[in-house]
Structures are given as structure tokens and as C-alpha cells.
């Protein structure tokens, strides 16, 4: 360990402490303790360049312990990313590039938004899966286009969260040998020493999950840390877990105490820290030129590595011209070209479950676009999300396109976000709709990062029937609709299902959920107007007396009741409230005229999504209690979803 190594590590510590102290908010403990680990990785081993922070073969570094963001921002600044010293001074301030937790798309060099603990581990696993998948497809002898590592730095809290067990279990099963988990074991959480809650043998657990385990007894021993990281890079048929024992708040008066975890050290303690590190305590937000010069030398080495790869890539494209077209299919797919008149040809004239339609559409898309791959939480055959004729993605077939996630909904969604973030893939997850509760926090992260992960949910309502209220979603539509930048589609038939898929695949700045029925639904002759989220499906002459709005399986019910009613009725199909609300005011009022206040919302779920459209004088035919176990037809009848009941509601306004 050289003098400049020591100075660089301590500069990272001081910068982190200054950021948090100026903001009067943050988590200094982990940045102080983990600085040697992070520096050793970034300075010696991490193949990245600020000249091209989206380079496809860069090593990925995920700070799963996102509360330690000051550590990452210090590294990004020192190593030349678009994070200035002024940005560091604006830590946790309004509109700054240095928010309280790392945010993808907001700060140069940040690979993923890591807020809830453990989710970063899931995204790292997804990135390692994507690396293995694309390497299996594109790498040729002498041309290792995809040949990098994925690193995730986690803490005790990440490993306590259940999601970590889900994703690391799958990583071990898949033998993802390019995945390296760095465990900053400082044995402290907010409430104190982890002996009060977390006494499991973590290295033994990780070995049981299929990881190679490397231990570092003292995180301040730079040479030992570096040796462990170098060992983690050596070939192995397993992912690697490196346990590094550190002291939280290292070198400060609060070293080893939970008091350094989630609050500023305090001005006097920051002064003492700097004195302990050999710095002038009166200097704030400083980085000496020799530290910058040292980082610049590292960047020059990495630029040479990057240029070598670019030359190899160019030679590869000349040696394998057919692969250039395939590369473009992965990294520049033209999804819009797929959705033509032939696509919208109706193929079913008999009742069919929308989950079946979804499966047909998904398989058709996957045949046309090899970059589409994904899977389910052990329910592919039920959700109809399995890609027929394609291999499974496993440790012997990384080129496979069917992912078996096992019963791991939360981890599944985080992994899929990692695959999406990696680039070159369009991925999806699938499960029963009621189990969206397990993955909602990660669906929210998809929306926060504005990435197009696709969520396919079947068994959409009380129509699940005999499985009863535990499996009959009621409030889940409202839950997902409440997430900003997240489109929820509940199609009523083949046409609307196809529209939903077009909407999902012709944008790349938000996630989409498609909610599908288990039971067969009649074709109601929906139109491509469904692309506007809501449209007039059945109208009357003149101004309607009543407007009935419905989604999914209840649309055919609305049409049938309107046809029998003795008043003028307009039926509005509303496959996506989210998309409908983005239409122009003129369009919205053309569908729902202000002067027609007699409105009924019909949906086998909570009424809470519909208030702004129903208004004060409107009515609801919804499910605002839990379901019950019985055949689907009986459950619908029990809850009032019959033509007779809805007709009576229409006529008795």
C-alpha cells in the first residue's frame, strides 16, 4: 500500500464526511469503514471509463447499501465522472446530482437506483445473468465481447432483507461466475450491534447457496482487501462472496457505534476524523492534486483497455458480418415495425381467456425479436408466459430465453430490473395478480428508474373462484395504478390485449403491467382506439342518460346490460386508466362529457381508482371487500356482477 493509496482512501472518507455534515443528513458510518474496499476495487480492478459511462463491456458496480451514497459520489468525482465538487457540496439538496440514495439516470456513473436494502443485490444478479446470456450468444473464440464482472457492495441490512436470500439463492443455482458480492460486515444496524437480530453464519450460508467464499479479517488492511478482490476475479464455476470485516465510522470518535450509522458525525467529530487521517481539520471539500493525478493515471490505463476492446469489437464485426445484424436486433430493435394490420387480425371468434391471448402475442413477439427473454415465479404454464420452442436459461444454457425464477416474486422483479438496466434485452416477469403484493416495491423501482420492465399478471379478479380470497385480487389494481410512471392495462379481449402489448413494447421510459383473466372472455369487438386507454365501445343516439365504464372481464357485462336497458347508455371500455388520463382534455370530455353525471364504474376490484371519473353523483359496481371461495360464476353473482343487477342500476339512476 503506497502513500497515495492511503491519501486517496482518506480523501474519500473526508469528502463523504463533509458532504453529510454540510447537509446535516446522511449515513457516514459505511463510507468511512468501506472506503478501502471501494478504493481498491475502483483504482485497481474496475474496468470502467468516464469517457463512456454506458460502455457495454464495463464492469458494473452496484452500491446495494444505497444509504452510503456519499461513498459512491466521492468515487465518481475523483475518477472523473460528471460529478463536480460543487455537486458534492449539494449532497441531498433539491435538484442536485447527489441525492440521498443513488438514482439511475440522474447521476452519471450510477448503474441502478438502490433505495430499499437488498434490491441492489437483485439487480446485480440480473446484470450478471444478462452478461452470461449475451456472452453465450455473441462471444466467439478470440472475441470475448462480454467479459466483465458485476460487483455489488452490501451491508448487514441488505442481507437481513428476505430479497437477498431469493436472489442469491438463484445466483448460486445459476453458477454466475462473473458476479462478486462484497459484504461490508461492520456488525452494526440502526438499533445497535447486529448480535441482537442477526447472528447467522453468513459465509457458511453463502457457501451453502453455491458461492465461493473469501474472507478478509480487517477491512483497513488494504493489501489483504486487494488480494481478496484479485482472487475474486480468478476463474471459478460459482459466484463469489467476499466478507470484509470493518468498523463502522472508522477513524472517527464514533467508530464502532450505531451513532455513526444514520446521522452526521457532528462538526467536532469531523474535525477529529480529519486529524486522525492526517488532514487539516479546517479544510473542507478538498482533494489534493496528487489524488486527482493518481485517478487520472488509472483512467488512462482504463482508456487503453477500452480502446483495445473497441478495436476487438470492430474486428469482430468484420470477421462475423452476420452478427452485426443480430447485434442490432438486440441493441436497436425496431418494435414498432411489428405492430401492423396483420398483427391486429382477430384470430379467435369464441370466448378465450386473455392469458391465452397474451401467451400467443408474447410468443409471436419473441419469435420476431431475439432480445426478448424472461420468465415466471414458477407459474409459466398458468400465466402462459413460457416461450415455446426456446431453451431454458440455466447454468448449462445461458443462451436460453426461459428463466425459471422459482417461487421468488420479489427477487424476480429485482433481477428483471437488472436485466433491463444492463441493456440489449427486453425482459418480462409473470405471476398471479394477487402475488403482485410480493413485488410491488420493485415495480415501484422500475417506475422510479423509468425502465420498461414488463409485468404480466394473470388470474386477475374474483374470477379465480375456488382458490378463494387469498388468491382473488381486490385492491391490487388500485395499488399498481397509484405508482407514478407505471402503466396498468386490463384488457377485455384479444384486440385490447394486443393493444396493451404494442403500448408496452413501443416505449422505453416506463414499466407496464398487463392484467389478464383466467376465465374465458367473449370477444366484444374492441378497437385500436383502446390505445388511448379509454374509448367509446358502444354508444347511443344523442346524449347518453348513463355512461357505464368498465375494464377487463366486466366490459362484456356492461355491453350486455346496456343493450337491455330502457334508457340511453354509452359503454366506455377503460383498459388503462393511466393512459386515458394522459389524453387531451378534449378527448377525455368527448368520451366522458361533463354534462353526463350519471356514471357507473364496473370492475371486479376496489372502487378507489375510479372516483375522478365517476364523480359525486355516480355509482359503483365494484368489489370493496374480500372475495370468497366458490366457482367463479357464483362468486360474480354473489358480488352483484350480473346483467340483471347492472341493468337495474342503470335504469334506477
TrEMBL record:
Catalytic activity: D-sedoheptulose 7-phosphate + D-glyceraldehyde 3-phosphate = aldehydo-D-ribose 5-phosphate + D-xylulose 5-phosphate
Residue ranges annotated for the Transketolase-like pyrimidine-binding domain, each copy included: 352-524
GO terms for cellular component: cytosol
Keyword list, A-Z: Calcium, Magnesium, Metal-binding, Thiamine pyrophosphate, Transferase
SUPFAM superfamilies per record: Thiamin diphosphate-binding fold (THDP-binding), TK C-terminal domain-like
Cofactor note: Binds 1 Mg(2+) ion per subunit. Can also utilize other divalent metal cations, such as Ca(2+), Mn(2+) and Co(2+). Binds 1 thiamine pyrophosphate per subunit. During the reaction, the substrate forms a covalent intermediate with the cofactor.
Residues annotated as binding substrate: 27, 261, 355, 382, 459, 467, 471, 518
Signal peptide: none
GO molecular function: metal ion binding; transketolase activity
Catalytic activity, EC: 2.2.1.1
Binding site for thiamine diphosphate: 67, 115-117, 157, 186, 261, 435
Subunit structure as annotated in this protein's UniProt entry: Homodimer.
Role: Catalyzes the transfer of a two-carbon ketol group from a ketose donor to an aldose acceptor, via a covalent intermediate with the cofactor thiamine pyrophosphate.
Protein name: Transketolase
Amino acid at each position: 500500500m503506497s502513500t497515495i493509496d492511503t491519501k486517496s482512501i482518506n480523501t474519500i472518507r473526508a469528502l463523504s464526511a463533509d458532504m453529510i455534515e454540510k447537509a446535516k443528513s446522511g449515513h457516514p458510518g459505511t463510507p468511512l469503514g468501506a472506503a478501502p474496499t471501494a478504493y481498491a476495487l475502483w483504482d485497481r480492478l474496475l474496468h470502467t471509463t468516464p469517457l463512456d459511462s454506458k460502455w457495454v463491456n464495463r464492469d458494473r458496480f452496484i452500491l446495494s447499501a444505497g444509504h452510503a451514497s456519499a461513498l459512491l459520489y466521492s468515487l465518481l468525482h475523483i475518477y472523473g465522472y460528471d460529478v463536480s465538487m460543487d455537486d458534492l457540496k449539494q449532497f441531498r439538496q433539491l435538484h442536485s446530482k447527489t441525492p440521498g440514495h443513488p438514482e439511475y439516470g440522474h447521476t452519471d456513473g450510477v448503474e441502478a437506483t438502490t433505495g430499499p436494502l437488498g434490491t441492489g443485490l437483485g439487480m446485480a444478479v440480473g446484470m450478471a445473468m444478462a452478461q452470461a446470456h449475451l456472452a453465450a450468444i455473441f462471444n466467439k473464440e478470440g472475441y470475448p465481447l462480454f467479459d466483465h464482472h458485476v460487483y455489488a457492495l452490501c451491508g448487514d441490512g441488505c442481507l437481513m432483507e428476505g430479497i437477498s436470500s431469493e436472489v442469491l439463492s438463484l445466483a448460486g443455482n445459476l453458477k454466475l461466475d462473473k458476479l462478486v458480492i462484497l459484504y461490508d460486515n461492520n456488525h452494526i444496524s440502526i438499533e445497535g450491534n447486529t448480535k441482537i437480530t442477526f447472528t447467522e453464519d453468513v459465509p457458511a450460508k453463502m457457501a451453502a447457496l453455491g458461492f465461493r467464499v473469501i474472507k478478509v479479517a480487517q477491512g483497513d488492511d488494504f493489501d489483504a482487501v486487494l488480494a481478496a478482490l484479485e482472487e475474486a476475479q480468478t476463474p471459478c464455476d460459482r459466484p463469489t462472496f467476499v466478507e470484509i470485516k470493518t468498523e463502522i465510522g472508522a477513524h472517527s470518535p464514533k467508530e464502532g457505534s450505531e451513532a455513526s450509522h444514520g446521522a452526521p458525525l457532528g462538526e467536532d467529530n469531523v474535525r477529529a476524523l480529519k486529524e486522525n487521517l492526517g488532514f487539516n481539520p479546517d479544510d473542507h471539500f478538498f482533494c489534493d492534486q496528487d489524488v486527482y493525478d493518481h485517478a487520472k493515471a488509472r483512467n488512462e490505463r482504463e482508456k487503453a483497455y477500452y480502446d483495445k476492446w473497441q478495436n476487438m469489437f470492430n474486428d469482430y464485426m468484420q470477421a462475423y458480418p452476420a452478427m452485426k445484424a443480430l447485434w442490432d436486433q438486440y441493441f436497436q430493435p425496431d418494435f414498432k415495425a411489428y405492430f401492423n394490420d396483420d398483427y391486429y387480425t382477430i384470430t379467435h371468434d369464441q370466448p378465450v381467456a386473455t392469458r391465452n391471448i397474451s401467451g400467443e402475442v408474447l410468443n409471436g413477439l419473441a419469435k420476431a425479436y431475439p432480445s426478448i427473454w424472461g420468465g415466471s415465479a414458477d407459474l409459466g404454464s398458468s400465466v402462459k408466459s413460457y416461450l415455446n420452442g426456446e431453451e431454458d436459461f440455466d447454468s448449462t444454457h445461458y443462451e436460453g430465453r426461459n428463466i425459471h425464477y422459482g417461487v421468488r416474486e420479489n427477487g424476480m422483479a429485482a433481477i428483471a430490473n437488472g436485466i433491463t438496466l444492463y441493456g440489449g434485452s427486453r425482459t418480462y416477469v409473470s405471476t398471479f395478480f394477487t402475488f403482485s403484493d410480493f413485488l410491488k416495491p420493485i415495480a415501484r423501482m422500475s417506475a422510479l428508474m423509468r425502465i420498461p420492465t414488463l409485468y404480466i399478471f394473470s388470474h386477475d379478479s374474483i374470477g379465480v373462484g375456488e382458490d378463494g380470497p387469498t388468491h382473488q385480487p381486490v385492491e391490487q389494481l388500485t395499488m399498481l395504478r397509484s405508482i407514478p410512471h407505471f402503466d396498468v392495462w386490463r384488457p377485455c379481449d384479444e384486440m385490447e390485449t394486443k393493444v396493451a402489448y404494442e403500448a408496452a413494447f413501443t416505449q422505453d421510459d416506463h414499466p407496464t403491467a398487463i392484467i389478464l383473466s383466467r376465465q374465458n372472455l367473449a370477444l366484444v369487438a374492441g378497437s385500436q382506439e383502446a390505445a388511448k386507454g379509454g374509448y367509446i365501445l358502444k354508444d347511443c343516439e344523442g346524449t347518453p342518460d348513463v355512461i357505464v365504464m368498465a375494464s377487463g372481464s366486466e366490459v362484456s357485462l356492461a355491453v350486455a346490460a346496456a343493450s337491455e336497458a330502457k334508457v340511453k347508455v354509452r359503454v366506455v371500455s377503460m383498459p388503462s386508466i393511466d393512459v386515458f388520463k394522459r389524453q387531451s382534455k378534449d378527448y377525455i370530455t368527448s368520451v366522458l362529457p361533463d354534462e353526463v353525471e350519471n356514471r357507473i364504474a364496473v370492475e371486479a376490484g376496489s372502487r378507489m381508482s375510479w372516483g375522478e371519473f365517476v364523480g359525486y353523483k355516480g355509482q359503483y359496481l365494484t368489489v370493496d371487500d374480500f372475495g370468497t371461495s366458490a366457482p367463479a360464476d357464483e362468486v360474480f353473482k354473489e358480488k352483484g356482477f350480473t346483467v340483471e343487477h347492472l341493468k337495474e342500476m342503470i335504469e334506477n339512476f
